[in-house]
Amino acid sequence: MEFAVAEDDVWLSVFDVLPQWQDASGDSYVREVKIPVSGTGELHLSWDPVERSVHLRYRQGSDVVVDVFREQATLLTIHEPGPVIAVEYRAEDCLGRMRVRLQPTFALDDVFLRT
Questions:
Q1: Burial classification of residue 56, based on how many CB atoms lie within 10 Å of its CB (0-12 exposed, 13-18 middle, 19 or more buried)
Q2: What is the pTM for the complete model shown?
C-alpha cells in the first residue's frame, strides 16, 4: 500500500516550516516538522515513509499533552481552510483517521474502526 505525504512546499505555504530529516531516529528517511502553535505550544510531527508510520506530539511548555503514534498510514496531508492536518491509516482488519486542528486552539479527532 502507498503512503502519500503532502509535498514540502505545502508545509511551507501553510505553516511556514519545511520538513527536515530527523537526526534523532538514526534513519535517514524519517521526516519531521515542528510547528509553533502558541507562545508555549508546539506540534512535533514526524513520519517514516518506509514503515508508513506517523508520530504526533503536542507540547505545552515542557509538558507533553498529546503523544500519538500510528502505523500503516496511507495519507498525511493538509486540508484548508483550517488548516487541518489529516492522517489516514489502514490495516487488514481496521481503518482510521486523525484530524488535527491548530487554530484557534489545538484539537485532535482520532477515529479507529475495525472493518
A1: buried
A2: 0.89
